[in-house]
């Protein structure tokens, strides 16, 4: 594709050179840091766009595009659509250049991103929430531009925007840490991947460029397979910064020639990469910002001995989402599996299971409610240092006579739906237990204080990462006297646990439906 007599790729490289002079009026270069992960693998360098003026790379393209507006275009104002980061870049440039800007964002845009737009743009920006997706916001913004004569600044399908993003690759080349054997670049609409891959290939022609997308939002992969941008039927929005239904036309033209292969990653793999960035660099990445590292971690064995580049494209993450990611199974660095085990419904069998099959494992989640007089089906999420140990657990269970069922990813486990039949209980008591998160502490409590005195009828525990584990436990006693004796003699504080308090009668009644 040629424009102004030059092929698009040459024009893009030329515009990246011009962008050098423009973008640094609005912000400073960002650091390139090495992250060291445990075990063998490649030498990984991270371009830290999360510490840029808007905590994301999008300031580069937005500021470069708005810097070339004519006097008449500035007077008519700017319109754009964004899921958050591009909007902040437009806002930053709007205030600096004195340009009034209307920014259309999906109604689901995190508050942290809306507030950041207002912080950067001040009185020069107006946020208009429209639709439930980025594409719906784009439609509203284009209608606005058509009716008002304002300039539409596209988030990725624009030569100046692509060139601005390319300046981050210029900083990588000038850093002295290259050349790199491979670069793993996340892709939404493709603007950053186009600008960066073009510049890296110019200076290091042998570098392998890997495009990375979420498995439920692979619009560039679809475009490359169809040899043209095509819309996806549905888009997963976990990585909201790259949740684009259709790759940009101009980025596609560049990426078709510069990307050597595509890689897709799951949300769980992204969550694991977010944790690695925090542990390795104290970097808090938004999900889309960790896509590149997720793909590198997925291919560590094949990349051993190579020097690899990834980009943390942003850190604009809603605080609530960060908490959910931290508690997800995907963020665990160790191998994990959720299983349901059948055991006889009689006193001591739960502890027998813990003593035999689960010895040496970490129980990250424990859910159980009594539903039958003859048998129990408690559900456990087990973690271990090696995937081999997790894989060997079913054989261990079967050798001890326990039937089991895999529930990894089950909806009822994820939403903690723990049913309990109150009509099967005799003389129940519910306890709020705070115990120290160390191997054996929970087991010791059950062994020393509960074994032989009562049956477990309810258990609700999830590991939170704190030094104190918190569980809601239900015990069923053979008589009211046995229950009262236990409650009167159990110490509130003891070895291995910080607090053990009976739940009030009203809460107990609600748990058993009475």
UniProtKB/TrEMBL annotation:
Domain ACT-like: 337-409, 429-504
GO molecular function, a single term: L-serine ammonia-lyase activity
Chemical reaction(s) catalysed: L-threonine = 2-oxobutanoate + NH4(+)
Pathway of action: Amino-acid biosynthesis; L-isoleucine biosynthesis; 2-oxobutanoate from L-threonine: step 1/1
Cofactor: pyridoxal 5'-phosphate
Xref: SUPFAM superfamilies: ACT-like, Tryptophan synthase beta subunit-like PLP-dependent enzymes
Family to which this protein belongs: Belongs to the serine/threonine dehydratase family.
Protein name as it appears in the record: threonine ammonia-lyase
Organism field: Luteolibacter luteus
């Amino acid at each position: 594709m040629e424009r102004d007599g030059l092929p698009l790729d040459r024009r893009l490289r030329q515009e990246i050179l011009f962008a050098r002079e423009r973008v640094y009026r609005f912000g400073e270069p960002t650091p390139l840091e090495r992250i060291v992960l445990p075990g063998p693998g490649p030498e990984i360098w991270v371009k830290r766009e999360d510490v840029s003026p808007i905590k994301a790379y999008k300031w580069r393209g937005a500021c470069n595009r708005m810097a070339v507006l004519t006097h008449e275009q500035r007077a008519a104002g700017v319109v754009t659509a964004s899921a958050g980061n591009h909007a902040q870049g437009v806002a930053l440039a709007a205030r600096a250049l004195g340009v009034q800007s209307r920014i259309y964002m999906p109604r689901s845009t995190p508050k942290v991103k809306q507030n950041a737009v207002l912080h950067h743009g001040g009185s020069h920006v107006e946020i208009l929430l429209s639709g439930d997706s980025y594409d719906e916001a784009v439609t509203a913004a284009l209608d606005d531009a058509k009716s008002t004569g304002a300039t539409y600044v596209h988030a990725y399908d624009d030569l100046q925007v692509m060139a601005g993003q390319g300046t981050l690759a210029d900083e990588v080349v000038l850093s002295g840490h290259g050349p790199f054997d491979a670069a793993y670049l996340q892709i939404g609409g493709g603007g950053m991947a186009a600008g960066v891959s073009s510049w890296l290939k110019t200076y290091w022609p042998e570098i392998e460029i890997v495009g990375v997308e979420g498995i439920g939002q692979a619009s560039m992969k679809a475009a490359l397979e169809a040899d043209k941008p095509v819309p996806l039927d549905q888009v997963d929005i976990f990585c909201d910064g790259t949740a684009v239904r259709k790759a940009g036309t101009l980025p596609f033209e560049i990426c078709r020639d510069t990307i050597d292969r595509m890689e897709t990653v799951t949300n769980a793999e992204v969550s694991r990469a977010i944790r690695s960035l925090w542990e390795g660099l104290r970097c808090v990445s938004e999900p889309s910002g960790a896509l590149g590292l997720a793909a590198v971690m997925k291919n560590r064995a094949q990349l051993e001995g190579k020097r690899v580049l990834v980009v943390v494209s942003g850190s604009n993450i809603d605080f609530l989402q960060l908490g959910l990611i931290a508690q997800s199974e995907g963020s665990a660095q160790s191998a994990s599996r959720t299983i349901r085990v059948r055991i006889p419904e009689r006193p001591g069998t739960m502890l027998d299971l813990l003593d035999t099959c689960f010895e040496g494992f970490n129980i990250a989640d424990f859910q159980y409610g009594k539903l039958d007089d003859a048998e129990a089906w408690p559900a456990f999420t087990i973690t271990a240092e090696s995937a081999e140990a997790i894989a060997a657990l079913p054989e261990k269970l079967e050798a001890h006579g326990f039937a089991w069922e895999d529930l990894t990813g089950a909806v009822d486990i994820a939403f903690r739906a723990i049913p309990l039949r109150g009509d099967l209980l005799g003389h129940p008591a519910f306890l709020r237990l705070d115990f120290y998160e160390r191997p054996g502490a929970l087991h010791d409590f059950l062994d020393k204080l509960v074994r032989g005195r009562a049956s477990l009828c309810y258990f609700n525990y999830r590991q939170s990462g704190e030094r104190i584990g918190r569980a809601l436990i239900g015990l069923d006693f053979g008589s009211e006297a046995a229950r009262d004796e236990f409650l009167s003699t159990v110490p509130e504080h003891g070895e291995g646990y910080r607090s053990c308090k009976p739940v009030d009668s009203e809460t107990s009644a609600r748990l058993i439906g009475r």
